[in-house]
Amino acid sequence: MTAGAARDHRGVHGGTEPRHDRAHERTRDDHDAAQDDLDAPWPRGISRQPTMRISDVLRALGQEFPSVSHSKLRFLEEQGLIEPVRTPSGYRQYSQADVERLRFVLTEQRDSYMPLKVIKERLAAMDADPDSAEHPAPRLAGTGSPARRRWTAQAVAEAAGVTEEFVHDLAQAGLLPASGGTFGSGAVEVARIAGALAEFGVEPRHLRSYRTAADRQVALVDQVVAPLRSQHASAARGRAASMASDMGELFTRLHAAWVRQGIDDLG
């Protein structure tokens, strides 16, 4: 057999893989990858390659959630809300999709005071139907416009649909704590609700007692979770943050129930 014939013979039966077989393998791999993406939980279309350390995750989320910590991430993991990959040496590694799920959890806790149990149920529903239009659109943490951490009176007024003078009235009434002439992101929601009440003739000065009651509730929550927060164990501090969020939600629901009951009694 000539050398050329031998090479041709090996190309069919020997150690060199035929080109059409390699192409078939690539096609099959692409199909499998596409199927895996269709079967993936929320959010789809974002890398699930575990390339991020916990420090990378904290850096990506820190601007929007300054209080997020190692202990908070570990606690959320213990509650089954996130499942980072463990390396053979035991280190946690996260993907961009993991970070998006964390963003969702932290946002729901911060903006809606939603208990972790309810957040977990929402994530399960989103996993069952990741493409539903009702679900929030994912945004890669650390990309796009950074979250605004401090707001001017003008910015609050524009976002809430009220006048700048009204924002200053709220601040003077003690309803919008200011620091250096600026406000936190929660000021927008307060101004929006207060503006709606103003249409019924409810002025900022009428709302001072509500602000005082809210401060007392926060102080009570702080008193309850302080023993856990003072512990050095990361799990205890994470549990304290979760308890505070859950208690805040319960106080909100209790207040709403009392108001509804009182309104019903008006006949």
In short:
This protein has 267 residues and is an all-alpha fold. Helices cover 61% and strands 3% of the residues. Helix 4 crosses helix 11 and helix 7 packs across helix 9.
Q: What is the element layout, followed by pairings?
A:
Layout: H1 3-13, H2 19-39, H3 54-62, H4 70-78, E1 85-86, E2 92-93, H5 96-112, H6 116-128, H7 153-160, H8 164-172, E3 178-179, E4 182-183, H9 186-198, H10 208-229, H11 234-265
Antiparallel strand pairs: 1-2, 3-4
Description:
With 267 residues, this protein is mainly alpha-helical. The protein is 61% helix and 3% strand. The chain has 11 helices and 4 strands, in the order H-H-H-H-E-E-H-H-H-H-E-E-H-H-H. The chain has helices at residues 3-13, 19-39, 54-62, 70-78, 96-112, 116-128, 153-160, 164-172, 186-198, 208-229, 234-265, and strands spanning 85-86, 92-93, 178-179, 182-183. The strands form 2 sheets. The chain has a two-stranded antiparallel sheet. The chain has a two-stranded antiparallel ribbon with strand order 3-4. A hairpin with a 2-residue loop joins strand 3 and strand 4 (182-183). Helix 4 crosses helix 11 and helix 5 (96-112) packs across helix 6. The radius of gyration is 27 Å and the shape is globular. The protein starts with a helix and ends with a helix.
